[in-house]
């Protein structure tokens, strides 16, 4: 499993607009082999920004890298430059290979 994250420092007062951009976009993720799950995360508020992260789970690193080279990726990011005024600086990418997963044992376990 591979987790891809982008961190965004969103300008104060732009949180609702930033969230709406993400909620209303067509991500095309569901069409990509190896895609598992996506989350948009809101983190702590600082004096000059609110931290957000996009968190995507993939079957493996190869699936994620395939996504970044796909037509679906280009379509999903087509208008990305238009929202730069909402956040401070470029997003910061972090990629993680999953080493261990611990799940809830479920009922009766």
TrEMBL record:
Annotated organism of origin: Teichococcus aestuarii
Pfam families: ABM
PROSITE patterns: ABM
Name of the protein this chain belongs to: Antibiotic biosynthesis monooxygenase
InterPro entries cross-referenced by the UniProt entry: ABM_dom, Dimeric_a/b-barrel, Heme-degrading_MO
Coiled-coil region list: none
Residue ranges of every copy of the ABM domain listed in the record: 2-96
Keyword Zinc: no
Keyword list, A-Z: Monooxygenase, Oxidoreductase
GO molecular function: monooxygenase activity
